[in-house]
Write a structure and sequence with these properties.
The protein contains 4 helices and 4 strands; from the N terminus they run ααββαββα. It is of the alpha+beta class and 206 residues long. It has a domain of 114 residues: General secretion pathway protein M, EpsM (Gyrase A, domain 2, 2-Layer Sandwich), CATH 3.30.1360. A hairpin with a 2-residue loop joins strand 1 and strand 2. The protein is rod-shaped, with a radius of gyration of 53 Å.
């Protein structure tokens, strides 16, 4: 009977199997390492791209903030200019109103005397004299303060009647009236408080 010794063959096969397993393991490790390296490189590229995008965004944001500051400066300058323009317009309007109001007041002052008193009150040239004149004229909003001198109480009363009939005022009140001697003449000093119709109401009436 012939006997065949298979031990060397089995040992060789076993070694071959071990080599194959080691080779597969090494190959698997290499593949895993390769995948990890590729993933790491890709991730780093993505991070670099994001960092670049962040820098570009920050740069654009800085430019926009600078432009926004310039816009704010221009807006503030425009607002300041508008305020100054509004003040100038307001002063010009108030100046025109004051001039117009004073002109209206002047036309309401009694300058001519009555026929019965014309000879006594006329001067050497037979010209009529003023029976009332202002010492002080103040306007605070719609409130007007008039201070002046008149020849008599009737002159003041007539003047107040003309003020009330002028449709320029809603209130005409006599605050004080006193006797005052000027150049040996017994005259009347007075103070009248008027409240004029506001511009809005006056424009609505028109």
């Amino acid at each position: 009977m012939i006997r065949i010794n298979l031990l060397p063959y089995r040992a060789a096969q076993k070694k071959e199997n071990i080599r194959r397993q080691i080779s597969m393991f090494v190959l698997a490790v290499i593949m895993v390492v390769g995948i990890l390296v590729y993933y790491n490189i890709t991730l780093n590229n993505d991070i670099d791209a994001l960092n670049t995008q962040i820098k570009n965004t920050q740069s654009m944001l800085a430019q926009l903030e600078k432009q926004a500051k310039e816009v704010d400066k221009i807006k503030k300058a425009f607002d300041t200019l508008k305020q100054k323009t509004d003040v100038i317009k307001s002063l010009e309007t108030n100046r025109k109103i004051a001039v117009q109001l004073l002109d209206n007041m002047t036309t309401l002052v009694a300058e001519k005397v009555s026929a019965a008193q014309s000879e006594a009150s006329a001067d050497s040239d037979s010209k009529p004299v003023k029976r009332l004149w202002f010492n002080n004229f103040q306007a605070n909003g719609d409130d007007i303060n008039l201070q002046g001198i008149a020849l008599d109480n009737k002159t003041i009363a007539d003047f107040m009647s003309r003020l009330e009939a002028s449709n320029l005022f809603i209130k005409v009140n006599l605050k004080t009236i006193k006797q005052q001697k000027i150049n040996e003449l017994n005259l009347k000093s007075f103070e009248i408080i008027c409240t004029r119709i506001s511009r809005n109401k006056s424009e609505k009436k028109k």
